[in-house]
Amino acid sequence: MKDRTRLEMWSPVRWVALLVKLILPLRTFQVRMLDSGEADTWRYAAGNWMLNPSRLAQGSERRPLQQGIFRRSDPLAAGKPVAAVLYINTNKTADITKSGHEKGYVLPWPFGGPVHQDVFHWLEKLRAWQEKYNPVMGRTPWTELDGRHIQAKSQVQLAGYPDACFLFRMPEARDGRRHLPLTADTLDTQWFRLLEALELRLADRNETHQNGMPIRFLPAPDVRAKSSSRGYRVTLFPLHSLRVSLVTALALEGLVPFPVLQKLVGHSRLLMTLYYTKPGASHIRDVLLGAAERLEATKEASIQNFLLDTEHDELLQKAICNSVPSLAAAIPQHPAARNPAGWMPMHHGLCLVGGNTSEVEGNGAVGGCYNGGPNVGSLSTPKYGPVPGGSRNCVRCRWFVTEPHYLPALTGHFNTLAYHFDEARNACLARENELQDLKKEKADAEDTGQPFTRLDACRQTERVWERALKRFSDLAEDLVACWRLIERCKAAMEAPLGSGTQLVAAGTAGDVHIAFEETESELLQLAGVCENVEIYPDLEPGKAVFRRSQLLDAVLYRDDLPPVFMLLSEQEQLLAGNAFMRRLAQQMNPGNPALGQRQVIGLMDGGARLSEHFDIDPAALLPATNPVLAVMRGYQTFSGSEA
User: Fold this and answer.
1) Domain ranges of the chain
2) Distance between CA 140 and CA 135 in Å, rounded?
3) Mind giving me the DSSP string for 302-338?
4) CA–CA separation, 167 vs 88, rounded Å?
5) pLDDT, tens digit, for every residue of 361-398?
6) Mapping DSSP to helix (H, G, I), strand (E, B) and coil, where does residue 71 land?
7) Predicted TM-score of the model (pTM)
8) How would you classify residue 467: left for phi > 0, otherwise alpha for psi between -120 and 50, otherwise beta?
């Protein structure tokens, strides 16, 4: 108070401390206890070092005092000269066995960038502010700290810390405590105000979660209103969560190696760094999808390396194939004699004879689809027939080999076979009913002594039925053969390695089990087949694409929309139908699109109108892959008078 004029000054201490928390992965206690370096021998200023001119300076050039936040880097240790590194003078449990200047650790941190992210800039400005408006007479012993500043420690433990010029000291403190650091709960109010302002700013910009719910950092207003406390400072995210978030971001998004991150955050054990890394569900899902894509991209090289490098005896034991003797004949015993040029990668495995479908004249020893079947000769003079089911029916071929990487492709192949199996069964039953009706007519005619005039039709129907029955039988055997390969892949994944460890790193064996699912939904089966055909073009969809298009056009018709898919080519129907189903599934259940697709198909099978369950026009979910779809966007229905 001077001349009845009261001068008020804003203190930046709390807010700079909070900013440091936002930038650096430090504990709140570490930030509060930082040393300003006002008594250090060397002084950092604007990227340069000079001898400290302050009256508080201690040490000498030969034995400098360096306890401040800014520390000169050692070119021999750092490998590359930098202006300065940060020195964190406390480090929790890692300091227990240390004393004096041995406590704490060095934190290299990048310079520059936007001013609000440049921690060196703000630490230097705060030090200058403290020197001008809240100077200290000397370094402060830690024995002056009490329970408000630090957890209860004995005087001997406190004396183990070197005296400090605390950077975050409070100039507004009374009773001669202006030289002491921030107390433990000082930043809680600033953190609450910051989150409150951020929540209001997001609300003003109409930024919400994907489901439309407001983004909350604080308890709901009605919960806060019930609190009788004037100093209500409860947040949904405690201040310490900043450290967890920064460690997680550096590890998962910044891809900082964990050993480097361990040094960065001052952990004495790598396990603590792993504990602090908290990936969210969406990140885990994205990582797994990326891993699946990488496995898909490298699976061909993986199986080739396995066949090239594995010892012959071990190869015969571990390889997943239909005929071990054929594998032994196709793979030379010595790895150096093996040549992958004659192998052909398939979508679900590898063909050891290069995908050869035609017999070479005069050389029946060359393998291919024509001799990939069972032995029709004797054990002493074997002679192999063609692959059952025709060329490229690899799941029943003795030249085919696969491994667990191909499980998704094998599953897709199995589902496609199951669709053809169902179609063949239905055709077989239909032909059998026709044949039984004709046989009944023939029996009735013979009983009455009348001539049976439809004998040719009966013979023709019997031939068609036998052909349908043969196809049905072949597909049944294909299904069994494919399932056996899937089961062997699962067994290989669950088998222990030589060290006794499991290939399945977490969970139970049931986590990798594949089971039959009997469904009454034709559309659910068709959707799975069409998705697999887009991923694995080798699969033969048959009539699946056209049949699904019929069902989807019926769904559009229920919403007074014209049929769209029937006007497209088969490839366009496949891609547009898959995209349409994916968008509907995403709208139905953003968190679990796979479950969302089942829910959408349930609505379609129940005859529901999609417009009654979605806030948007179903036509807007159709991808514009064809001019027909673009025209359909503007389609309108007219009443009789308007037409």
Assistant:
1) 13-184, 292-402, 521-643
2) 12
3) HHHHHHHHS-HHHHHHH-EES-HHHHHHHS-SSGGG-
4) 12
5) 665 667 888 888 888 888 888 888 889 988 889 999 98
6) strand
7) 0.53
8) alpha
Give mean pLDDT in consecutive 10-residue pieces for the chain, a chain of 643 residues. Answer: 72 92 85 91 89 90 90 64 82 73 82 84 93 91 85 79 91 85 86 89 86 82 70 78 69 61 56 47 51 59 70 79 83 72 82 80 72 84 87 89 86 91 91 89 86 87 90 90 89 61 34 60 91 89 92 89 87 90 86 86 88 71 52 41 36
Beta bridge partners of 86: 70, 107
Going from the C-alpha of 220 to that of each of 211, 227, 237, 285, 352, the distances in angstroms are 17, 11, 13, 30, 65
- Buried b vs exposed e over 459-481: b needs ≥16 C-beta within 10 Å? eebbebbeebeebbebbeebbeb
What is the C-alpha to C-alpha distance for residues 24 and 247, in angstroms, rounded to an integer? 9
Instruction: Give CA separation, 132 vs 17, 454, 613, in Å.
Output: 18, 114, 66
Q: Which residues pair with 43 in a beta bridge?
A: 50
Cα torsion angle, 87, 92, 93, 99, sign = positive
Q: What is the pLDDT of residue 16?
A: 94
Token pair of 339 as six digits: 């040549």
How buried is 390 (Cβ within 10 angstroms: 0-12 exposed, 13-18 middle, 19+ buried)? Answer: exposed
Q: Angle formed by the axes of helices 455-494 and 407-448, to 10°?
A: 160
- Sequence-ordered list of residues with C-beta below 8 angstroms from that of 357, at least 6 positions apart, any chain: 368, 369, 370, 391, 392
- Judged by DSSP in three states, 49 sits in strand
Neighbouring CB atoms inside 10 A of 584's CB total 24
Report the alpha-carbon distance of residue 340 to residue 406 in Å, rounded: 18
Kindly state the tokens that stand for 134.
Answer: 């809240």
Q: Is 202 exposed, middle or buried (0-12, 13-18, 19+ CB in 10 A)?
A: middle
pLDDT of residue 632: 43
Secondary element (H or E) of residue 285: helix 281-309
What confidence score (pLDDT) does residue 376 get? 85
Tokens of 384: 């192999």
